Design the sequence.
């Protein structure tokens, strides 16, 4: 909140925006939104709440009762929260998850801004994706949002890799929906199928890692087995932004391929949520300077 004393910044009129997730203390979202509120003179404050699935229902009930204007949702609540909301945006329905809730006089609407954020992050890095081949590791909330948006926005070929864990069935549903509703060629492979992983990454233009690999407590974990799976012409986006440079990104540097973390994605998905809550455009260049 810069140098403005808390007693001048927060008054009886100040409205609350929150973020409910666990773990949460690494988040850049409070800095992003509070700086934007301050810059635009908007009377809101953004605060993090450590909430997991066990306390999610009570939390949503409480936020609604307190007439809180809206909040963000992150791991592990993105899918679980949808059943407590009144409406879902079309993208949120396809993905089956949401990262943003807007409270309009007690009516809670969930939407997902991660996919738009990721596509805008690629654009901001000068990366064209229309007609390209994209490989995505992960099939959770963020990954699915990216996959849906990429296919809708004109990626020619989308190859998804995931472990055969509880997300596998969700990935199969995403593939079926995207084959039906978009022009993209969409395939799904087991992340442990290393022959397929090597073949698909060799032919790929863009690789997005949308797993928690690289983030605490998986700092030393990379979703792909070793740097030989990367090539110089591949563009790699790691959705993790804490730490700023993941082990995957270090491998990319060693191989010589362009890579960047999830900060831009976070910025653009945040700007979309900011607009829904306040009706205002986030001052993106200003916020980028503050965050970087
Ligand atoms: P999620 O829990 O919904 O999904 C996790 C996914 O990762 C699943 O597909 C799971 O199979 C896979 N996975 C988990 N552990 C793995 C491992 N050890 N090896 C391989 N795969 C593994 O999570 P989510 O909300 O989709 O978030 C995933 C990542 O995306 C997180 O790192 C999060 O920080 C990042 N994210 C970034 C932004 C951003 O704006 N930059 C936004 C949302 C999420």
Sequence:
């Amino acid at each position: 909140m810069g140098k403005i004393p808390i007693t001048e910044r927060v008054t009886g009129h100040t409205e609350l925006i929150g973020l409910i997730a666990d773990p949460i203390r690494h988040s850049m979202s409070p800095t992003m939104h509070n700086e934007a509120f301050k810059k635009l003179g908007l009377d809101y404050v953004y605060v993090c709440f450590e909430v997991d699935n066990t306390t999610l229902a009570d939390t949503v009930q409480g936020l609604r009762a307190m007439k809180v204007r809206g909040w963000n949702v992150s791991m592990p609540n993105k899918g679980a929260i949808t059943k407590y909301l009144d409406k879902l945006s079309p993208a949120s329905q396809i993905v089956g998850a949401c990262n943003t809730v807007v409270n309009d006089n007690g009516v809670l609407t969930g939407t997902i801004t991660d996919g738009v954020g990721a596509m805008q992050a690629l654009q901001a890095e000068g990366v064209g994706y229309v007609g390209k081949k994209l490989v995505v590791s992960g099939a959770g909330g963020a990954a699915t949002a990216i996959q849906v948006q990429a296919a809708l926005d004109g990626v020619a070929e989308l190859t998804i890799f995931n472990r055969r864990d509880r997300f596998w069935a969700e990935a199969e549903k995403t593939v079926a929906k995207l084959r039906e509703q978009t022009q993209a060629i969409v395939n799904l492979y087991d992340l442990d199928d290393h022959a397929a992983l090597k073949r698909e990454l060799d032919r790929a233009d863009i690789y997005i890692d949308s797993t928690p690999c690289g983030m605490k407590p998986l700092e030393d974990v990379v979703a792909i087995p070793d740097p030989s799976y990367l090539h110089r012409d591949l563009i790699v986006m790691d959705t993790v932004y804490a730490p700023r440079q993941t082990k995957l990104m270090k491998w990319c540097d060693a191989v010589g391929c362009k890579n960047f973390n999830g900060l831009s994605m976070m910025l653009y998905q945040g700007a979309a949520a900011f607009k829904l809550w306040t009706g205002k455009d986030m001052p993106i260049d200003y916020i980028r300077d503050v965050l970087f």
Observations:
- The chain has two domains: 6-112+265-291, 115-261.
- Residues 6-112+265-291 form a domain with the Rossmann fold fold (CATH 3.40.50.10860).
- The first helix runs from residue 6 to 9.
